[in-house]
Specification:
- With about 200 residues, this protein is α+β, with helices and mostly antiparallel strands.
- It has three domains: about 5-65, Nucleic acid-binding proteins (OB fold (Dihydrolipoamide Acetyltransferase, E2P)); about 80-135, Orthogonal Bundle (DNA polymerase, domain 1); about 155-199, Helicase, Ruva Protein, domain 3 (Orthogonal Bundle), CATH 1.10.8.
- It contains ten helices and five strands.
- The chain has a five-stranded antiparallel beta sheet, with helices on one face.
- A hairpin with a 2-residue loop joins strand 1 and strand 2.
- The protein is globular, with a radius of gyration of 16 Å.
């Protein structure tokens, strides 16, 4: 299994990125906080990886720290939460905010995340209560540096595509991006997600 990838960042279009390792390009999906820490395209990057092997695909999910990856792994153990939903959760809330929602049993905050209804939020609270403590600790993080977007299209249209990939409907993603501020795709998406979590 692949647990870590170190190479050159070739492409970044949230929620996907491509890392070249000695001529082999690895397509990786990652939550938005990872994109905030990425270096410029063409620079070195190191990511912790969770690999999912399915009958029809082998998927890689990348994280800036072992804590992020541990939280992802605990989330996908919850009944009804797949990798895509776990990425959306970690994109909409930081690990600390998510832990706080679980501790305070804040169903309303969880249901503001895309794809999470009341039943799923309640299941997350019940099943994650005991697991949250396991995820903490001083695990090393990977600093990846400066953020600059790479790829084609305007930052706003890329931000809309990123929000849609996280599970927001097209019209909702457009509304969020219109109200958000920022100079890069990552900044726009971060601001849009902050506004959603504050509602």
């Amino acid at each position: 299994m692949i647990g870590r990838i170190a190479g050159t960042l070739v492409y970044r279009q949230p929620p996907q990125l491509l890392v070249d390792c000695n001529g082999v390009g690895y397509e990786i999906e990652a939550p938005m906080p990872v994109f905030y820490d990425l270096p410029k395209v063409g620079e070195k990057v190191v990511l912790f990886i969770h690999m999912v092997v399915r009958e029809d695909a082998q998927l890689l999910y990348g994280f800036s720290s072992l804590n992020q990856r541990a939280m992802f792994r605990e989330l996908i153990k919850v009944n009804g939460v797949g990798a895509k939903m776990a990425v959306a959760i970690l994109s909409g809330l930081s690990a600390e905010e998510f832990s706080q929602c679980i501790s305070s049993q804040d169903v309303a905050a969880l249901t503001r995340l895309p794809g999470i209804g009341k039943k799923t939020a309640e299941r997350l609270i019940v099943e994650m209560q005991d697991r949250i403590g396991k995820v903490g600790g001083d695990l090393p993080s990977v600093s990846a540096g400066d953020t600059t977007s790479g790829g084609a299209g305007s930052d706003r249209s890329q931000a809309i595509a990123a929000l849609e990939a996280l599970g927001f409907k097209g019209a909702e993603a457009q509304r969020m991006v219109k109200a958000a501020s920022g100079d890069t795709v990552e900044d726009i998406v971060r601001d849009a997600l902050k506004m959603v979590s504050k509602k």
